[in-house]
Each structure stands twice: as C-alpha cells, then as structure tokens.
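Risk register update: the risk that structure generation would not scale has been downgraded. Supporting records follow, first protein first.
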Amino acid sequence: MIQDNTTEAIRVNARKTDVFDIFNFKNYAGPNPYLDTGALVFDFALTDEQEVLALEDYVKAISARYPELRDEEYSSHAHLFARTASEVAKLDMDLHVNRWSIREHGNHHQIAIQSLYARTTRGVIYFVWDWFEAITRDSDVAFEEQLTTLQNRFRSSVYGGPTVYALLRTADRKGIPAFYLWEEGLMQYGFGKKHVRGVATTFDGDSHLDSDFTTRKDDCKAFLKTLGFPVPQGDIIVCEREALSVAREIGYPIAIKPVVGHKGIGVTADVQGPKELEAAYGRALKAIPEDQPTRIIVEKSIKGSDFRLLCVNGRFVAAVERRPASIIGDGYSTIDELIQKENQKPVRRDTPTSPMSKIQCDEAMEIYLEEQELSLASVIEKGKRVFLRKVANLSAGGVSIDATPTMHPDNIILAQDIAQHFRLTCLGIDVISENLGKSWKEGNFVILEINAAPGVMMHLNPAVGDSVDVPSHILETFFSSKDDARIPIITFNKVSIHDLQETIDHILSQHPDWTIGAVCQDAVFVNRSRKISNPDYNTNVQSLLRNPKLDLLIVEYSEEILERDGMFYYGSNMVVLDNPTETEMMLSRDILDGSTLVVKKGDSIMLHRKGLIEEYSLGEDEPFTRVYLKEIGTIV
C-alpha cells in the first residue's frame, strides 16, 4: 500500500502497465468525516512505474465526452480523477450525486465521491480508472457499453425503480430523511413518530384491504358500476368457449385481460373476431400467475385514447395520455431496423429518469403486425407511422403525453369521487375517452380499472408535455415541510451511561409521556429500559429511528465510530462536544439551522445558539452535564 512516511509508491491494485493506483475503499451510508452525505472513499496515487501524461491531455480526452469539464481548473491528476468520477457517477441519468472531496496525504490523495448505491459507485471508480489508463496508452475504452452495464447495475438496486428513485430524489431536495430498510424491503421517509414506510407509492397507512380490492378487477368493476360510474359491458370467463359466447353477446370489438395482473401484461384491446380472440385468450391465460385460478375479463372495447388519471390523498393531481409504441418509415429500413434505431435515442435509455422505455418486441407485437399485413422484415414507406401494438403499455415502449391541463371539471370530480372511496394515498384510474376536455357525462368515456400502486414517472417526465411534480404531492401528504419529517436529535461525541441516563431522566421529567431512544458505545435504551444492542452501531441508530413511537433520539458518535462507520443520519438539533478531536468536530458541521452547539475544551465552554455565541468557564466542581441539560429546553 502507499505509506504516508515514505516517498516511494508501492503498488497495491495497479498492474505493471498502470500509471495510477486505487485502493483502501471505504463505504459510508451517511455523513462521514469526508462528506456530509453517503460516500465511497478511496485512495488515489501515481505508481511512478510508467510515465503519466500532462494533465491537459487527460482533460482534452475527457471533455470530448463531458464538455462541461473542459473549462474547469484542476490542481492535480487526483483532482481531475475525482471530478470525472463524480460526473460519470450520474450515469447519464441525472442522478442527484454531485458532491465530492479530496485530501492530500503526502504521496497519495484521499477522494470521497457521493454515493447512492455502493456497488454501482465502486464500478464507476474502476471504470474511470480504466478510462484514465486507456488515455495514457492512447487506446479506446468501450465507454457506452460500460456505462450501460453500470446503468443496469443501478437499475437492479433498491433505488433503481423509477418511482422509488423519483421519491428518493424529491425527498433529498426537500430535506426529508429517506433510507431503505433492508430486512423489510421498504423505504422509510422521516424519523421516529414522524416517519412513514412504503413500497413505491404504497404506504404503511394505506388499507391493505383496499389495495387488494383494486387487483380484483371484476369486483372492483362491479363496485364502480354500483356507484354509477361508467364501466364497459362485459363478463368474467374461465374458458375460451365462454369468451366466444360473451363476445357474441356484447359484440366485437372486445378487450381481453386477466382478472389479476399489472402493467398491461396479458391485455389485448380491439379484438375484432374469433381468430384474434383465440390468440388474445392465450396471452391472458399465460399472464395469470400459477397460484391463481383461470379468470379472464371479456369486455366491450371502446374507441378512444388511453388515459391515466392520478389522485393523491383523494385529490386529482395529474393526467397523462398513453399511446402505443410506433415507428415512422424512411422508405428503406425494415420495421426491426427502425425499432433498433428508435431504441438508440437518449429518451429511450430505459433508466429511472428517462421519459420512455425501449420498444419491446414480443408475440403480441408480431401478431398485431400480422393483422396489418406486416412483419418485422417489412419496409415502411417514408413518413408513414405504424403502431406496433394495440395496448399503450409504457413499459413496452409506449409514449406518455401530459393531459393534465385538458381535464374537464366533471372528470376531475369523477376521479376524486372514486379516490375518496379508498383509503389509499395514491390511486391511478385508467380510462378510455376521445377527449378529456369533454365531460364524461356526454358519453364515450369508460373506466377500465383502478390501480393501488401507480407509477409516477409518466407524469413527472412525460415524453410530450409539461412535468407534474407528483412525488412532491405524495410527500407533502405526509410532511408539509422538512421539519415535519424529523424528531429532535441530540448528538454527543462522548457520553457515559450514567450521563446518558441522567439526560433521559431530565427530559422525561419535562415530557413524561415521551418515548426517548438513546444509544452509546456501551448500551441502547428506550426511556429507562436497556435494550439488546446490535454489533453494528448504525443498525442500533436505525432501529430507534424506525420506532413509530419515538419522540426524541440521543446518540453518541466518537471519532472511532465516525471513522469506521460514519453517521446514520444528517442533522442534529443539539450537538454536545466534550474536548472533541478534529474528526469529531464534523458533528458541528452537520448541525441544523437554529440548533444549539455546546463545546467544552478544558474548563472553557462555547455556546452557539441561534446565531448568538457565548463563552465562559465552568465553575469549580461544576459538572458539564449541568451546562447542556439547561440548554435542552431550547430544542424540546
């Protein structure tokens, strides 16, 4: 490894042909001595085995891919490496990772890069390392291929789903704490008694009965009909013979879909006759999970456009039109070639932030092309548009168009009347209509189904039209401001069990009904009750913040813990430092606005409260506890 007390560079991970070396990786899930956020920290050094190029040569090569880096100034190769890694870490997905830091340590540098998902960030660092080495050797690197691999790695992470990521990013922008609960497979927003947990747009306060009810499309349709809302004529069938019978009764065209399903899987619209019905029935049957009975909806297919209406907390917030995937002919390319070209467009990067997914080729597409007397090998005349499927499935390459401004007041009331019958934070209502600007009372408007866990990206980042900030609407349902997501937190750099218990007792004397969580290196408490301690320090902190009854948290973060694990949370309402080390002073860095800082150095006390600074000395035999216990009243 690279030793601080020598000028000789010793190779750790570098190959004999490498100019640079990367080593000593440390991952922090939260604030740490290097950044005030989760970060991947590593050492960077020159090997001195090969001749390094001039700094401007690397800048020239890198700025060809990232022009914004061209006009910035860099003090060293390490500085450029850190800046490049920070930019690549966004993965061309506009991820909210833009913080980094660098420290010089003799013959190597310590770099910290903001990180959402350590496995992806580490892959980014190794990729940038390969890129720098390739520049040195004047060779190429498979940039787009490697970037795609990293994008897919992030997409497979717990934060990679479009809806989860949109909520995470919005929470970060609003200052609302958010983190993943690995054992539960849930996201948590907020702390203690202020927190909510959920999966995408489903939350712990939602009715699981209502959520389950929306998946039973037949029962839900009957319920909507009972309320007087417009639903298509049809029935539930269990075999193909019954499907043919219902189709004859209601008349073609019809739509066929499984009772249990999502994302348009197994759905076929505009079925024109018995032959198409046979294929559509097979697709619906195939989409039914093995543990579910055969129950398929056959209903009248209504002409019009496919719309999703979204309600949050019982109120209408957005509408989007969904159109099936299509291509436009150029007179010489086949449909298959046109799809490949379309899928190369940046808007179809198929990432959590891209407005469109890649067009998927499947049996349903091929059947629909056959109905148009086409195939993937067909050449389409220039300027002619060919739709590739009947169903406007966005996950298969469909196009989203914002329709929120066009909503007729009657249609807004309709959506809200439906939503208010369900104890669900978010409700998606799928309808067919010729024009949302016309009242549903005028006819040719039907409700296809409702969804308890609607996605948000079609509204937040539509392919056409303005963005509707649905994630903000969702989070504002729970938190009117960032303060509503937090409970008071007191952070010490050192505190004994005796002083910790004294602090708990002091607060309980003023707030006897409170639940107080406390953790130090030696114990975990909830009020006066000592609890089982997890070997992983930050797991204890998380478990307390996960407690839905917790009113206040007290935590000790010593230099040892800060260097080894970092902090779990950002922001303290009160920080108490007892002869702090340089590393422990970072606790004052992460203090919230309007909070209290108490620092003891020897017998000297510095008190910083709401912009005012007071300095004095401890009296003879005056305990330090007396100082900070008196100040606790300013934050609780």
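Supporting record for the second protein:
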Amino acid sequence: MQNPSHSFKRPEADLAILELLAVQYPNVDAAIAESARLTAVQTLPKGVVHVISDIHGEDKKLQHIINNASGTLRPLIEELFAGSMNDEDMEEFLTLTFYPAEVTKRVGETLTHPDEIRAYALRMLGPQLELLRYLVSNFSLRLATDVFPAEYRELLLEIMHAPSTERGPEFVGAMLNELVRRDRALHLIHLLGRLIRNLAVDELIIAGDLWDRGPRGDRVMDYLRLQPNVELIWGNHDVLWLGASLGHEALICTVLRVSLRYRRLGQLDEGYSVPLTPLEHLARTIYANDPAEHFMPKGEGMRPNEVVARMQKAAAVMQFKLEGQMIQRNPNWDLDHRRLMHRIDHEKGTIIIDGKTYELLDTNFPTVDPENPYQLSEEEASCLTCLKHSFLNSQKLREQMRFMVGHGSMYLKRDECLIFHGCVPVDAEGNFLPLEVDGQALSGRELFEEIEKVVRRAIVDSEQSDLDFLWYLWSGPRSPLFGKDRIATLERDFIADKTSHREIKDPYFSLIHETDFCDKVLTEFGMETAGGLIVNGHVPVKVEEGESPLKRSGKAITIDGAFSEAYGDYGYTLVLEPNRIVLAQHSHFDSVEAAIRDGVDIVPKVQNIRVYDSPRCTGDTERGQRIRYRIQMLKRLIEAYQTNRLHERGA
C-alpha cells in the first residue's frame, strides 16, 4: 500500500500542516490553479447577507420572509421579466418562486395529462433558468453548485447553458420528455424554485430569540435547519429553552409558564412530545378551586381558560421556589434581594420587595410552607419529576438544541456590522461591567467569548453550575442577553402597584445613541470605527409610536421589529448588499394558503442605512480574509513543491 506521506526528509511542523493541504492539491499545477481561482473570486460581488432577530415562534411568517428573500426577490423578478410577462404570469411565477413545493403539489393535483404537465413545466422552466443564471453569476461556480441538489447537479449544469447554439430547444425538450415520462418534471420545477431562493441569500443570520410568545418555535427551528447557510446568535429565550432541554428545573418551569401564558402548547405536546398531563393534574387537584384570575391566558384553546390559568400559576410558584434555591447556591451573583418567597407575610397578604411593602392580589398559596417557602411540596416534586423526564427525553428538542449550539455564537462580524442579541453590559459612564465566569471577572469581548465556552460545555456535560449559569444568561442583570436589573415576573403576577413592575435597562441602550460609545464597543470587538455599525435585537422598536430602529449616533441599529403577533406583528430584516445596507420592515402575514391562493405577499418598507460609492467585493469581507489566508497557504505549498521539501503526486 502506498504511504500517504509526501516527504520523509524533514520532520518539520510547517510541512505537517502543508501535507494536509497537499492531499487536496497534490502538485504545483493543482495548487496554482486553485490560487488563481481564489484570487479571481475576490473580485466577485460580496454575498448578500440577511439578518433577522426575535422571531419568537412565528413560523409561518418566518417561512414566507425566507421564501421571498425578505422582499428582495419580487423587485428583481419584476425587473428581469417586465417586458416578457403580463401581470397574471408575473404573479403566477412569483408564487411558484416563493412556494415551489406547495404550488407544484397543487399543479400535480390539477393537471393530470402528461402533455399538460409538460407544457406547464416548459413555461416555467425558461424564466426559472434565466433567473438562476443571473443569481449564479454573482457566485463562484464552486460555491453556487454546492447549493445544487446533488442528484440533479449535472443535469442543472447542462440545462443552464440552454438554449444556445449547441443546445437548441430539442435539448431541453428531450430532457423534459424523459422527466415527464418518469413523473419528475414538477419535481425539477420544485427544486429550481428552492434553489433560486437559496441563491438569493448567501447567508441567513438569526440574531436570537427563536422561541416563546409565537405558536411554534419548534417549526421555526425545523425550517431554519433546511436553509443551506444559516448562522444563529443566541438570545436569552434560546438559552432558556436550552437549559430546560438539559433538565434545569427552574428553566423548565419558566418555559411552561410562558407557554401557558400565551397558550402556545402545541410546540410542547405535539412538537417536542412533552405532555402537560402532570401539570394539569396538579392544577385540577391542588389548585382545584383557585380562581387564578390574574393568570388567565392570552387567546383561546381546547382546555378551559380556568384550567390553563391554574396550570400557569402552579408553574410560576414552582419557578419562584426553584429560583430561590438556585440564587442561594450562587451567592457570587449577589441576587439575594430577588429571593422573594420568604418575604411574603401570609397572614397580612403582603410582600416586602426592596424594602417596600406591597399588598398581594392573590394570597392563595396551597403548596407553600411559610416555614420553608422554597421547598417543593410532595405533589410539586412528583409533577416536576415527570416533566423533567419528558424534557430530557425529547429527541427532537435535543437535536434542535445541538443544532442551535453547533451553529450558534454570542456575536458575529459581517462586513462592517457587529451583530449580537442584547447588549454589552456597562455602567452609566459606559465602562464595561465584569461578570464572573469560571472564577474570572470578565467584561466586553472576553465575556462574550467565555460565555460561548460555557454554553458549549453545558450541552455536553450538563453540570449543575453551568446549567445555573444558563439561567443567569436568561435573566441575570449583567447578562449580555438580558440587559435589565431584574425580570419582575412575580411582581406582575401578584402585585397591582405597577411601580414594582419596573425593570431598569442597562445604560447600554441609551448610550448607543452616542458616537463615542459606539466606537468604543466596535473597537473592543476588533471592528473599524469608520463605517462600523452595531446591530442588536432584543428590545422591540415601537414602530407604532414612531420610534426609529437607527439610533441618533447613526452607528447602532435595533432590528427587533416586534416580529411576533404578541408584540406588534411587524419585524425587520437587515440586508447587507454589495452596494448598500438596507432595513426591510415587514408587516402582518395572513397565511401560506392566502399567499398561494391569492398571491398575498409581504412587501416590506425599505430604508437605506448605508449606501456605498462602489459595490463591495468578496475581497472586502470576512470571507475575503479567509480566502487570503488560504492563498498564503497555497503559496507556501507551491514553494514547498518547487524546493522539493514536499514531493508532488500525479503531476
């Protein structure tokens, strides 16, 4: 057997690295050709990047926005085919492009004769190929064809060149006849539609908060996992679900409470196979006569409102108990003032918070022992044991969490944008505030990067201290994913006086209006200050009140556009194009059925954030930097071949 080693003469570390590259480029010509190709790729237009934040379980709206490329596909198609399509044909082609699977399924049910199917496929194939050629021209061929479905890659490469002098109508006709005969013509149209969508956006970045408030966070993740190039930035709702999936009891109760409050139970029982029967039993027995009027859910459903309200209250009380236990075992957090259960005076019906006494709206605590208020009752412990088992053994939930962690991070740098979910914790003067992680007091960029290590470690080892830290990321005052001094859940549930509900935001959210502060943050994360833009979600922009997502500094933008219907039903996509950065504002989306049947589309309002004098090329981006590093390595490989430090193969 031939030894795969390329050299035995010099046991050098440098050569060991180059030998790995030599497997792919075994001789001088192969290495030179690849270096030339990469040098040329640097001159191509940069890929289009879409950034969306705070989806909050709105799966259908997200699906449509991904399908129509945040509204950027419609104007492109209208421009390309303005002279060759009437309005009716244009709408038909747009609907096919946005929903290729659904449309081709309907066409297959309507058209049954092979000649009808062939005629439809031939009519759609022409504009699909023209649009595909346009989109592919902006990519390197290797990058574009990587997105092609493997089984049809060679066929697509052939028909992309048709019609031409060598490939006339009979070429496409022969191909189409065989596909019709094999009942695959509509399948090809479907694949082309999906390919067009995938090439319209080079990279999709989700800047946090996939779950909660909307109906199906599980389907949001299902759809994102189908996208060819997606990156996730973690939000506090994401680490909440991560902690619950790993069995953290306080976070399990929080997930249940929020899901019950918004009646989003389908994602639990249907999506993740987490039955709510144990919690319902607790509500129907221990809380049987409790009116729970301050826990009434939003919306309607199969279970009576009173039962859902009691379930929510039961989950909330368990959450407060478990959070109190956790805060006690983590004294370094300095959160003892948020242990509230022992501050309740059950005889007077009052509670003391931050030294002030408040009357309680609800004094029925059937599971609370005033002498030991943080201990779960026997019934609560039994209920939680069953629920925890379901969370830990949900295969789909575990798979989605592994995807989220594997494709996720605390921040990303794209072009001139620094993207993260929440904030950089600071004091009123803009000094970065430290948080203890693994015994180290860290702030700024170091804090973000150390948090990434803990999150990745938690999903592997599930140590109690790491799972507790996930809770802190969810709602701790110095968590970059939260950015407030507290989450006043108990106050909102049990106290009428709204002064107790106040949650003070981190100074970051006011300081990003100042240029100097933005420059300080950009510099901390290794970004250029000239042209740099901070991008975060987390705090919904109050669109209806006229609030602008772009801050006064012009160097920071908030892209949480209240995507969820529970928040306002708007939403933003930040689109990073070669010649500009634009913000697309989305509106309400009716349904997939209406989109297919009536051509209903979300046509966004577009606002220019940055306009460049000349379009940016691949060489101007992070991808361009990685390409330059690769070219340098290829140059070293070529030199090693030419000096005989490595032996060529297959020359």
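The two ends are 20 Å apart (CA to CA). On this basis the risk owner (M.S.) recommends closing the item.
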